[in-house]
């Protein structure tokens, strides 16, 4: 089974996913794609000798080139890991129920356009939440609205700041995303 990871930033989730499947004979990360030529996730992929592909808005939204690339690689699952652009309808149609995302809050709260990174954690603290967590969900044509696959929670302590809850969330992401991906791939027939 073959995984494509889309990321826009550092790629710590991508790294954990790549490491998780390194010893797996049946599943592999076949390619890492980014919309940002300078994103560190590309460096991480290079370190593992995993092919990368950088695309711009024109390719991603005006052509089928990205889709054709993924189909040519026989990708079974598309994993968004800190990918900040909306996924276009033609990509969703080409990979129905095969695109997933991770969000650093307990959707449906604290999600949607522009809600990413520390903006999410600031909103959670300002709302006075006692807990937060992560959500792994299928991707549809709206930010953070697809069917939820997995959620994990952490408690928010009185003097937790944005950095602390971001850290707690990231720990859960690294712990759960690879396993959720593995379980989904086991279910995908082919
Ligand atoms: C994570 O917080 C994830 O929930 C969100 O973007 C961040 C990606 O972090 N979608 P990294 O690039 O994997 O370190």
TrEMBL record:
Name by which UniProt lists this protein: Phosphoribosylglycinamide formyltransferase
Residues holding N(1)-(5-phospho-beta-D-ribosyl)glycinamide: 11-13
Function recorded in the entry: Catalyzes the transfer of a formyl group from 10-formyltetrahydrofolate to 5-phospho-ribosyl-glycinamide (GAR), producing 5-phospho-ribosyl-N-formylglycinamide (FGAR) and tetrahydrofolate.
Enzyme class: transferase
Lineage: Bacteria, Pseudomonadati, Bacteroidota, Sphingobacteriia, Sphingobacteriales
SUPFAM superfamilies found in the cross-reference section: Formyltransferase
Domain of life, per lineage: Bacteria
Residues carrying the site annotation Raises pKa of active site His: 144
Coiled coil segments of this chain: none
Gene transcribed to yield this protein: purN
Family label: Belongs to the GART family.
The reaction(s) this protein catalyses: N(1)-(5-phospho-beta-D-ribosyl)glycinamide + (6R)-10-formyltetrahydrofolate = N(2)-formyl-N(1)-(5-phospho-beta-D-ribosyl)glycinamide + (6S)-5,6,7,8-tetrahydrofolate + H(+)
Domain Formyl transferase N-terminal: 1-181
Record-linked Pfam families: Formyl_trans_N
A GO molecular-function descriptor: phosphoribosylglycinamide formyltransferase activity
GO CC annotations, alphabetized: cytosol
Source organism (scientific name): Solitalea agri
């Amino acid at each position: 089974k073959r995984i494509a990871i889309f990321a826009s930033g550092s790629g710590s989730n991508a790294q954990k996913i790549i490491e998780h499947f390194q010893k797996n004979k049946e599943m592999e990360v076949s390619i890492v794609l980014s919309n940002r030529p300078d994103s560190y996730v590309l460096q991480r992929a290079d370190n593992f000798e995993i092919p990368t592909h950088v695309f711009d808005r024109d390719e991603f939204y005006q052509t089928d080139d990205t889709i054709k690339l993924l189909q040519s690689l026989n990708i079974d699952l598309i994993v968004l890991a800190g990918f900040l652009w909306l996924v276009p309808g033609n990509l969703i149609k080409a990979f129905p129920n095969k695109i997933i995302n991770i969000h650093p809050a307990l959707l449906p709260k604290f999600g949607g356009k522009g809600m990413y990174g520390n903006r999410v954690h600031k909103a959670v603290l300002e709302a006075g939440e006692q807990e937060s967590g992560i959500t792994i969900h299928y991707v549809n044509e709206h930010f953070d609205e697809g069917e939820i696959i997995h959620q994990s929670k952490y408690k928010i302590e009185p003097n937790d700041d944005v950095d602390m809850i971001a850290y707690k969330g990231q720990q859960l992401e690294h712990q759960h995303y690879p396993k959720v991906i593995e379980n989904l791939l086991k279910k995908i027939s082919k």
